[in-house]
Amino acid sequence: MTKLAQWLWGLALLGCTWAALATGALGLELPSACREVLWPLPAYLLVSAGCYALGTVGYRVATFHDCEDAARELQSQIQEARADLARRGMRF
């Protein structure tokens, strides 16, 4: 099972549970405080997931490691390509 399928199954399970509780399909009599929290719960979860995603991306960008050897190799390849193109008559 792929990671996407796992997430979709989890979201479907949570969505069905939320819908059953919110519509009263299970016949449970929830206190009013629970019902007040239950209705906006998907929006809260969506905002929380967005904050987590932004935090993860920010952390990964902040701790990104530079590859100095690869950068030097790439610069030398660029210089070789420029020299080859200049030899063939192209001007920069």
UniProtKB/TrEMBL annotation:
Signal peptide feature range: 1-19
The transmembrane residues are 43-62
Q: In which pathway does it act?
A: Protein modification; protein glycosylation
What is the predominant subcellular site recorded for this chain? endoplasmic reticulum
Cellular localisation: Endoplasmic reticulum membrane
Q: Which GO terms describe its molecular function?
A: enzyme activator activity; glycosyltransferase activity
For biological process, the GO terms are: dolichol phosphate mannose biosynthetic process; GPI anchor biosynthetic process
Coiled-coil regions listed: none
* Pfam families registered for this protein in UniProt: DPM3
Identify the keywords attached in UniProt to this record, alphabetized: Endoplasmic reticulum, Glycosyltransferase, Membrane, Signal, Transferase, Transmembrane, Transmembrane helix
Q: Does the keyword Repressor apply?
A: no
Name the source's superkingdom. Answer: Eukaryota
Q: Which GO terms describe its cellular component?
A: dolichol-phosphate-mannose synthase complex; endoplasmic reticulum membrane
Query: Which InterPro entries does the entry mention?
Result: DPM3
| Keyword presence, Isomerase | no
Q: How does it sit in the membrane?
A: Multi-pass membrane protein
Which protein family is it in? Belongs to the DPM3 family.
What is known about its subunit structure? Component of the dolichol-phosphate mannose (DPM) synthase complex.
PANTHER family registered for this protein in UniProt: DOLICHOL-PHOSPHATE MANNOSYLTRANSFERASE SUBUNIT 3
The record describes the protein's role as: Stabilizer subunit of the dolichol-phosphate mannose (DPM) synthase complex; tethers catalytic subunit to the ER.
Q: Under which name does UniProt file this protein?
A: Dolichol-phosphate mannosyltransferase subunit 3
